[in-house]
Amino acid sequence: MTTRVLPDDVAAQLRAIVGDAHVLTSPEDQAGYLREWRDRYVGKALAVVRPGSTDDVARILRFASAHRIGVVPQGGNTGLVGGQIPSAAGDQIVLSLARMTAVRAIDADGGTMIVEAGVTLRDAQIAAENTGRLFPLSLASEGSAQIGGVLATNAGGTAVLAYGNARNLCLGLEVVLADGLIWNGLRTLKKDNTGYDLRDLMIGSEGTLGVITAAALRLVPQPADVATAIVALPSPEAALKFFRLAEDHAGAALTAFEFWSRRAMEFALAYMPNKRDPLAVPSPWYALVELSGGNGSRVNETLQLLLNSALDAVLIADAALSSSGQQQRDFWRLRESFSEAQKGAGGSIKHDISVPVARIPEFLTRAAAIVEAVCPGARPVPFGHFGDGNLHYNVSQPVDMDKARFLTLWDAMSDAVHGLVAELNGSISAEHGIGQMKRAALLRHKSPVEIDIMRAIKAALDPNGILNPGKVL
After folding, report:
1. Residue 133 — φ and ψ, nearest 5°?
2. Whole-prediction pTM value?
3. Which of 107, 116, 306, 326 is 20 to 30 A away from residue 46, measured at CA?
């Protein structure tokens, strides 16, 4: 990318579009937009611009395209692969969608809602709840993550087992293309078979094909009854059998099946406030299972029968069944604390992978040996969404090792883990995306045909290469 206008001219042109208050050029004002929360990626920017409307976004992109200036779309800055951070060259614009927070329409009877890209996931959930409906996508970062970023990365979260990831919950999009043209695809139809699915093309493209400015989302009925339990498991093999048993007992009522190791539990208890072990005796592995249903579904009875069957089959050693809504929330807060808890244990090398559910036990056994070979004494901290095959296979530094030295092993560790994932017919990115972290790995693990198709799509929609340069491809 070559910027053909001076930085001061860029800022002046952007101020003419969005106003002085919404173009940030000082290091102090820009700081929160240039660093991701794990401090792995830090960039620089010509300016941070905060449009207030879709028309603002279109005018910004027309200007950027004319002058060949890279534009990095950014939502809540909660991404984990550096996709929302500009390069260190300082020749790109950060396009923050944070001001675009309107809930444009809610159709409770039709089960749809149209919101702008800057609406946080939590605010979207609340808007749905206020009409008696549920927007079921749920992430630990939902208080900060914005709908535009959630869709641009095709985020997953804890409810994928029952409701699918972000793609499954989006009916239509409004997108500004690289040249400033606006595609209005905000249809709320559940069936629309009219040619190429441009919505699916944009979802998961990480801002490299267009800028999502609004979305039509799918709402579902709020469950009338929810039952939640945390169980102690002797092994991943027992977890797999327990998961199959849960499917048999609960069917479609099984809405979550989360899984984690004892080490993840220990880190949460040691480094996060107000956390306690819900079970009396430590266990090597744990699962959180949740059942949801409508009126008269009797999910508590179903869950109790499931736990009794699992105890009889010696698949679980103990269980804590929630007795209140507060206890359910406490169980989920414990599960959602694992990523942040790892900070207290020093450096962490993170992998967001998926493998076929039936091969999760094999992956965990073989991955532990791989980690030990790359860095003796390193501590795997696996946790994740067992029911959809997605594990966050994070590795914390050895207790007596320097953090900086450990992090120099990131590429070697990830290459080894990703090699095993590929052997098991899995994916090197289950829900976080590619960003700048996994570009080289993508080339290794996608076929040349797939890469060529992706490059052809990129060239067709962004011929000047201004949209999120250096990300994905």
Report:
1. -115, 175
2. 0.94
3. 116
